[in-house]
Amino acid sequence: MFANVPRVFPELDHAMTQLPAFKAIVRAYVAATGVPEGTRIDAHAIRTVAQPGAPGDPAPEGIHRDGRSLVGIFCCARTRLSGGVTELHSCLTGDETPLFRAPLLPGEGVLVNDRLGEGVFHYTGPIEAAEPPAEGHRDVIVLLVG
Asked: How many CA within 13 A on the CB side of residue 132?
């Protein structure tokens, strides 16, 4: 359930960080979390792709923690896909019943307290192409502090 799968994300393109939509996501994250000005915020742009007959897996590590204080997962796009349901799980009970379960739609996001011993675990299930023969994809921005 809580596999340790290392993941490496490429550095964001500088042009992307200058887009008004990207800046709006960062401002919303800062406003919602109260992160002090000047705090380092790591950002990842993640596209998960599903081909007909080949699902895409946004979280190959399963239900997990990122090992950070505050994690924000913001959906930017869901194109020709089904699935991709985001879940939040209690870290205190060991119960696999999600506290929250919904597909994040474009413009939606979740903030996760990722602190050891008090936060929650998170997960997003596989996506499937919904309009064969075209691929489907899900784009998210993940912001992390701590």
From this structure: 6
Q: How far from 121 is each of 2, 62, 124, CA to CA, in Å?
A: 9, 10, 11
Site of tokens 């996760």? 112
Q: For 58-96, what is each residue's pLDDT tens digit?
A: 998 888 888 778 899 999 999 999 999 999 988 766 667
3 contacts 61 by C-beta, under 8 angstroms: yes
Give 116: exposed, middle or buried? Use CB within 10 Å, 0-12, 13-18, 19+.
Answer: exposed
The Cα-based distances of 133 to 46, 80, 91, 100, 136 in angstroms read 22, 10, 40, 32, 10
Distance CA 129, CA 82 (A): 7
* Residue whose tokens read 């500088």: 14
Q: Mind listing the domains of the chain with CATH numbers?
A: 14-145 (2.60.120.620)
Q: Which residue do the tokens 């080949």 mark?
A: 54
